[in-house]
């Protein structure tokens, strides 16, 4: 699913205009990014949590030339799914496909 698909889905389910749905989706993403940049953790119950992890500096190699390259320390975003999300994804019906009705997700 792309961001455009998500905007379209929000528009369809809420019966809002595409522009209003785009503002909603962008606001959510901007909030997540701002929180992560500030070093905060984001928890969405039943979905998962977003946080940053610190990577240590290391010595890497340029794959083309084989030269040693100093890779500086940096923060990376990390997502940890909730147990509920893992259970929903792994729940299957008789055909082996995920069952949206039993997961609480509306069928389309």
Q: What would a concise description of this structure say?
A:
The chain is of the alpha+beta class and 108 residues long. It has four helices and five strands; from the N terminus they run ααβββββαα.
Shape: elongated
Largest sheet: 3 strands, antiparallel
User: Could you give the order of strands across the largest sheet?
Assistant: 1-2-5
Count of DSSP-assigned helices: 4
Number of strands: 5
Could you list the spans in which at least 5 consecutive residues all have pLDDT below 50? Answer: none
For the CA atoms, what is the radius of gyration?
19 Å
State mean pLDDT (0 to 100 scale).
88
Q: Strand fraction band?
A: 25-35%
* Percent in helix: 40-55%
Task: Supply the CATH architecture of the largest domain.
Answer: Irregular
Structural class: alpha+beta
* CATH homology superfamily of the largest domain: IHF-like DNA-binding proteins
Q: Look up the CATH topology of the largest domain.
A: HU Protein, Chain A
SSE series:
HHEEEEEHH
